[in-house]
UniProtKB/TrEMBL annotation:
Chain positions recorded as Zn(2+) binding sites: C432, C435, C462
Reaction catalysed by this enzyme: NAD(+) + (deoxyribonucleotide)n-3'-hydroxyl + 5'-phospho-(deoxyribonucleotide)m = (deoxyribonucleotide)n+m + AMP + beta-nicotinamide D-nucleotide
PROSITE patterns found in the cross-reference section: BRCT, DNA_LIGASE_N1, DNA_LIGASE_N2
Record-given protein name: DNA ligase
Binding residues annotated for NAD(+), in chain numbering: D44, A45, D46, Y47, D48, S93, L94, E127, R150, E186, K302, K326
InterPro entries recorded: BRCT_dom, BRCT_dom_sf, DisA/LigA_HHH, DNA_ligase, DNA_ligase_AS, DNA_ligase_CS, DNAligase_adenylation, DNAligase_N
Nucleus listed as a keyword: no
Enzyme Commission identifier(s): 6.5.1.2
Gene: ligA
Cellular component terms per the entry's GO annotation: cytosol
Length: 719
């Protein structure tokens, strides 16, 4: 989603506040996907654009800066799957520079802040910005005692066992090191390791990974350290947290010390003075970038002297003594050979440009998504122009493609001078290319505008939707059935043999029975399957006859219900029957069940509607009934510490909290068995109000709900 293009200085205060609210939610959602789940939904360039828009509006309207503003937050809250570790010193983010002027501004601001220092007298280090995930590793008396991810900067995830599997990270430091040492740096995966891993996944019929950064993060945040060990993760040391003694007094000196202690450090680090030299080194690293076996997304500049760093100090989310000079997204020219339409799980028709293969930043690009009909025309999600009039994408066009160090390549623009004379405007199909049903663009009920997505109306009869549904059902974060990848799903779907056919999810679980009953066809005799793999497949299927409720809900493939929403639902309703019953009661979009669904923090009306709609469709319920005859969703873990006074109670947090972040407060309350809601209603038991609490506090008073401040709350939950 592109940032709104209305110039910031023409916004009214009301518009600005609304857009800031939108941006806070949108950025938080992307932070959660990227940092929390290692699975971004948008490119880094698009994400950065949202952040810059947010900063620009905040600069114009400082009075509107929100308590939950993205400009004061780092990363995302740690996952509850790992034990939390509170960092002895916070792990912050970095400010960004995108242009040479930004770099000069940064250097200028350092001189201004410190005052009275002659030009070119302050040394800066310049080091590649490794695209991995940051890690803090603590040693006491030279022994590795724990390791934590950055998390939200204050609290990270305890991943000690996983870090111990990384060969490059010493378990024991040489004699004579300070008593307490916290080495910080980046855990990453090399490009070659990443490609090899994907080749293995492909061969095993499993879903491939998107990019090295998210794969490194995902590989590290595994409950089973053996998985981490198999991924050959690497490390570069470049920073530190708590140190009982400082072994050096400069950034460079510290990094050299780490090298002496046995840590890998990046060989491209330099110490420089003049802005021109700093930028020169940035360009040099840029030239070497395609040949490096690890991904970097910029160069980090830091004031070298630690006493000056201390004087400069920190802003809320980043140090004043450092900045990250980002590389522009990588681009290349190529041709659109044809445009194919893919039909997804929800029936969305997605156009894909087949390109003449071209390397962009060391990776061969052959396809680029064109998103939807509007995008082909040059129109973005909010109806804004993203390319000039007439720059619609046509077969035969020469185009500029971009890879923003990540995710899916995009077609940025059309080179009009090279447009062939006979190129014709692309006509978006009016029928589904797979099943022939009508393809329509729905109207948005609120705005009356046409939806950007064109959908096949074939539903269950559309084989593309059905197979995509199955692929989603068996995917890693859903049922995760090993040996049942995309190729196998296609095979089982297409076969006409009733002993082998899988058309809907329950068929997966009857496959073995049907096989045993069939004297004629045996799966093990079919090419691509063997005795061993069939046995393994059936075992993998049987293993999933019992499944966590959140995975079960996610696997259903309800529109807008991703993993996070599925978890919220599982937690809220506890058991599958309770969930389904509530959704049926909510069908009229009124009444208690509907209000209750809407009141779950993190679930908005669009999502709530989609869930209710899903259960209104008798064919969905029919498939689920068949599925429930084969598999048992487990009741969601009721974390309720029954002795806590808040177990089972509904709490609303409002106003700005000072003792903890909103996420922390929420996680804490939930871990004690409370439900955290977004709005105050008759069902609310407690409202915890910080300074600046507004309408929610009024509502609580009106309804006679008990209100506490932060300290009272802390005392209350402490028992
Ligand atoms: N696509 C998305 O949905 C999405 C969502 C969130 C964040 N992001 C991307 O993540 C980044 C923002 O995340 P961020 O807050 O981690 O900021 P950042 O990545 O811009 O900078 C901070 C991080 O840089 C890393 N780093 C690497 N080499 C370093 C070095 N030599 N010295 C110091 N630090 C070094 C550290 O891990 C540090 O935490 C942006 O690139 C953004 O585009 C993308
Ligand atoms: Zn169709």
């Amino acid at each position: 989603m592109a940032a709104d293009k209305t110039p910031v200085d023409t916004l009214t205060e009301e518009q600005a506040a609304a857009e800031l609210a939108f941006l806070a939610a949108e950025i938080a959602r992307n932070d959660e996907a990227y940092h929390g789940h290692d699975a971004p939904n948008i490119s880094d360039a698009d994400y950065d654009a949202l952040k810059r828009r947010n900063d620009a509006i905040e600069k114009q309207f400082p009075q509107l800066v929100r308590a939950d503003s993205p400009s004061v937050k780092v990363g995302a809250a740690p996952l509850a799957t790992f034990a939390p570790i509170t960092h002895a010193r916070p792990m912050l983010s970095l400010d960004n520079a995108f242009s040479d002027e930004d770099v000069a501004d940064f250097v200028g601001s350092v001189y201004r802040f410190l005052g009275q220092l002659p030009d070119n007298s302050i040394a800066f280090t310049a080091e590649p910005k490794i695209d991995g995930l940051s890690m803090s590793i603590r040693y006491e008396q030279g022994r590795l005692v724990n390791a934590a991810t950055r998390g939200d900067g204050t609290t990270g995830e305890n991943v000690t066992e996983n870090i111990r599997t990384i060969k490059e990270i010493p378990n024991q430091l040489p004699a004579g090191v300070p008593d307490v040492v916290e080495v910080r740096g980046e855990v990453y995966m090399t490009k070659s390791e990443f490609l090899a891993l994907n080749a293995r996944m492909e061969a095993e019929g499993k879903q491939t990974y998107v990019n090295p950064r998210n794969t490194a993060a995902g590989s590290l945040r595994q409950l089973d350290a053996k998985v981490t060990a198999s991924r050959n993760l690497r490390f570069f040391a470049y920073a530190w947290g708590e140190m009982s003694d400082m072994p050096a007094d400069t950034q460079l000196g510290m990094v050299q010390t780490f090298e002496k202690w046995g840590f890998p450090v990046n060989p491209l680090m330099r110490r420089l003075f003049a802005v021109e030299d700093i930028i020169g080194h940035y360009r040099q690293i840029g030239l070497e970038r395609p040949d490096l076996d690890y991904e970097i997304d910029g160069v980090v500049y830091k004031v070298d002297r630690l006493d000056l760093q201390a004087r400069l100090g920190f802003r809320s989310r980043s140090p004043r003594w450092a900045t990250a000079h980002k590389f522009p997204a990588e681009q290349a020219f190529t041709h659109v050979e044809k445009i194919d339409i893919q039909v997804g799980r929800t029936g969305a028709l997605t156009p894909v440009a087949r390109l003449t293969p071209v390397t962009v930043g060391g990776v061969v690009v052959t396809n680029a998504t064109l998103h939807n009909a509007d995008y082909i025309e040059g129109i973005g999600n909010s109806g804004e122009r993203i390319r000039e009039e007439g720059h619609d994408i046509r077969i035969g066009d020469t185009v500029i493609v971009q890879r923003a160090g990540d995710v899916i390549p995009q077609v940025l623009d059309v080179v009009m001078e090279k447009r062939p004379a006979d190129a014709v405007r692309y006509e978006f199909p009016k029928v589904c290319p797979v099943c022939g049903s009508h393809a329509v663009r729905e109207k948005n009920e609120k705005t009356g505008k046409l939806d950007s997505v064109t959908r096949c109306t074939g539903g269950f009869t559309c084989s593309a939707q059905a197979t995509e549904h199955l692929k989603h059902f068996v995917s890693r974060n859903a049922f995760d059935i090993e040996g049942l990848g995309s190729k196998q799903v296609d095979f089982f779907f297409e076969t006409e043999d009733p002993a082998l056919q899988v058309r809907t999810a329950p068929d997966i679980f009857t496959l073995k029975k049907r096989q045993e009953a069939s004297p004629l066809t045996k799966l093990e005799n079919i090419e691509g399957f063997g005795k061993v793999s069939v046995k393994k497949l059936f075992e993998a299927i049987d293993e999933r006859r019992s499944i966590a409720l959140n995975r079960f809900i996610y696997a259903l493939g309800i529109r807008h219900v991703g993993e996070t929403t599925a978890k919220l639902l599982a937690r809220h309703y506890g058991t599958y029957p309770a969930f389904e019953q509530a959704m049926k009661e909510a069908a009229s979009l009124t009444g208690d069940a509907w209000a209750d669904l809407n009141n779950i923090e993190g679930i908005g009306e669009i999502v709530a509607r989609a869930i209710v709609e899903f259960f209104k469709e008798p064919r969905n319920v029919e498939v689920i009934d068949k599925l429930l005859a084969e598999v048992t969703p487990q009741a969601a873990e009721q974390v309720a510490a029954s002795n806590s006074p808040v177990a089972g109670k509904t709490v609303v947090f409002t106003g700005s909290l000072e003792k903890f972040t909103r996420d922390e407060a929420k996680a804490r309350a939930e871990s004690l068995g409370a439900k955290v809601a977004g709005s105050v209603s008759k069902k609310t038991d407690y409202v915890v109000a910080g300074p600046g609490a507004g309408s929610k506090l009024d509502k609580a008073r009106e309804l006679g709900v008990e209100v506490m401040d932060e300290d009272e709350w802390l005392a209350f939950i402490a028992g």
